[in-house]
Amino acid sequence: MDIQKDFLLNLASDGSDELVTIESLAENKVSAVVRFMEVFPEIHFCDWEDERLLVKSLHDRSLVCFVAWFGDTIVGAIFAGAMGLRGTINHLAVDKHWQRRGIGERLVAEVVRHFRSVGIRRLFLFVVSEQPIAALFWNRMGFDVMAGEVTMERDI
Q1: Is 155 a member of any domain?
Q2: pLDDT computed for residue 14 by the predictor
Q3: 107: Cβ–Cβ under 8 A, 6 or more apart, which residues?
């Protein structure tokens, strides 16, 4: 899954474009992505989601991670994984200065493309109830609240 997608974003007031690259997470960039994700308390990136676990998960292909780069700067990242016949999106973060420019949507599109390529046709995710803007984003991405379902989890 060694993909690289470039796209132009109109960022400057003078109308000039900037190149953002989305690529799958390389092992030598894991520590930078961990540091990036830890900046966002609202995505609940756990202490145990450390470099060792992420590298192991990349090797056994249970983790799908795409990173958006502006030059050498991480501007967004998404973590997802397969759970049986379903995929799950675990974390999505976009630097606050880069939000509302299509980066989150592009990262989600890469995860969807990946899961479709391996036969997964259903994705799920969890949104913290105190994050209504996140819920609106995910609703725009086609995700709906499932009536009657209750989320239960446990750290082990």
Answers
A1: no
A2: 45
A3: 22, 66, 68, 76, 77, 78, 92, 94
| Rg for the chain, CA atoms, rounded | 16
Amino acid of residue 124: F
Q: How many domains, in total, are found in the chain?
A: 1
pLDDT digits (tens, 9 = 90+) for 17-59: 578 899 999 889 999 999 998 888 777 777 888 888 888 888 8
Question: Is the distance from CB of 97 to CB of 81 less than 8 angstroms?
Answer: no
pLDDT tens-place string over residues 93-136: 999 999 888 999 999 999 999 999 999 988 888 887 777 788 88
The answer as to whether 148 is a domain residue is no
Q: What is the pLDDT of residue 108?
A: 94
Q: Report the alpha-carbon distance of residue 139 to residue 56 in Å, rounded.
A: 32
The answer to whether the CB of 104 falls within 8 A of the CB of 96 is no
What is the structure's pLDDT at 75?
Answer: 96
Give pTM, 2 decimals. 0.80
Go through 70-92 and write b for each residue having 16 or more CB atoms within 10 A of its CB, e for each that does not. Answer: beeebbbbbbbbbeeeebbbbbb
To which H or E segment does residue 135 belong?
helix 132-140
